[in-house]
Amino acid sequence: MDLIAMFYLNTKTTIEVKMEEVVGKLWDKWLTRQVSTDFPDSVIKLDDIQSQLQIFHRSLGGDSSKTFEPCEPRRIKTKRSTMQKIAGSHQRFYLAWQNESTLRLPPHIALFPEPSLNEFLYFWSVALAAFMPKMTHWLCDNQQSTAQILAKYPGLKKQYYQLVNAYLLTRPNCDTLDPVNSTNEQNIQLALKGEKYISSLTTTVSQPYPNMLWIYPALVEDINKPASYDPNDENRKKTASKKEIKELKQRKKAQYVDEEKATDGLLMFQAEALSTWTEQIDLDRSQSENQEDDVDQIAKDMDVINLSRQRKAGAAGIRFNLDLPAEENDDLCLGKGIPLPEWHYKKNQLIANVCNLQVMIADEIAPVELSANQQTLARQVQQLLSMLAISNRPKKGQLTGNEIDLDAWIDHYTKPVKDSNQQSFYIDNQHKYRDVSCLLLADLSLSTECYVNNEKKVIDCIQEALLIFSEALHSLADPFAIYGFSSIRNNHVRFHIIKNFTMPYDQYVRGRIARIEPGFYTRMGAAIRQASQILSEQSSKDKILLLLSDGKPNDLDQYEGRYGIEDTRQAILEAKKLGLTPFCVTIDKKGNDYLPYLFGHMVLPLFKMRVSLPKYYLKFMPT
């Protein structure tokens, strides 16, 4: 009987809980429908007309580099009805705003029952943004921009006043407001109609009802920086997390908080005051298992996020210190650095002096000899390369040949005394020669530390490839150079000299190859530009830039993503204009996603290099 009673009680409790959930959902759905002021059937989404809005913005003289993105709901403390307070609605509103780089518009508009009015509201906000690139006074600037638009484009007057008449019906009734708020509302409505110019509103506890027909000040520029804030303090720079929050694609208002307060000190309290009745009761307090979801939800609910300048990121500082080797263990720096440009794909231009390339060389090296296996592989590569890049050079003044040398015959004929034994009147076009210069550029970023298989790392494969190629090129007497690169943001691009074109190839060059260690990041554009400049100064007919890398460009700053890929692609195009032949050998199995965009067909997987070298070499080596 006890079991039956317990089962009955549990079943009854479960049914009651489910009924509460069902009733709660129905109540929430009904209440939301009662207080909602939108028209879902007439909604217009920003994504559907964003391209049209950008064209319209530029046609009105707006900044062509400005991007369009959805805005976040902004909290406005305004008068609400009782039902709205119960439902918790009408506290946040989607209000258009802009800064120097971005125009933020509502992700959707369903304010009017007519879709045409909702669509025109988008275009009107864009027009205001084009005529008001920088806001100094919210009331005055919006009114002045509205008058300028209607005066310059009279065709918009009819649609604008239709929008205003429909919008005024959605705003609060002045008779239901207190005298001060009623006066403010009347002034705003008259300003929208163009019947009155207002320069200020009376300050009240609540704010005026949001004006969807005006542009609001930028949300993220209202930051109160403490006096101790230093934007150039490297120890306080924070790096953003790589995790992408799919749902939270919004910007938040931020304010800096100075934690150095005069009231900081020892907190005194009575220990017996900590105990409460709830702490003495044995309760099963449920906790959320996924804390990251809670963090995302908290960020959504917060209107202002406080940023501390005093609390340093310990993990970031430790990582920064570990990344930088001690000066006595690092390579020798040559000079203060070389300023190099970088391609900004959004501006579609090459920005000068963005990168600082630091030339370095290892000063303490031990001689290294090739192993027997490496010598065998080098001879195989030498045999393959010896059959390629062979050009015909005409040799004049020969006793035999396939073409008559008229210059030699005329010189012989005009001589007063002719020697019948020196009748060399032919050109030999079958004389073959090699005229090739090669620069090997190795990626030495930290990603090369990972393993290719259970035995070798990526850096081991790069070292072996450099040793084999350099031995083969030396045997062919081809001029060649070897450099390595890595980076720590744009102000420190490390460019290691392993062998330049004037250095002799010996066991010390092999020692530098064996000494290379992975570290830092992959800023390819600057390294390719410097290598292209060095290679272009060679007098050889054929100049080959061979890049050995394990992945796509990346760095701690904006170089991650499309910016780095576009800059690298532009550097490759610049190398081709200099008459160079860029070629990439990669170990990245996902390289087909981006390498053909950078190098075209000049890409060869490193694990196929030994068996496919002639086939791929013929694609770029002249015959």
From TrEMBL:
Gene3D superfamilies: von Willebrand factor, type A domain (3.40.50.410)
VWFA domain location: 435-615
Lineage top rank: taxon: Bacteria
CDD domains, per the entry: vWA_norD_type
Descriptive protein name: Nitric oxide reductase activation protein NorD
Native species: Colwellia maritima
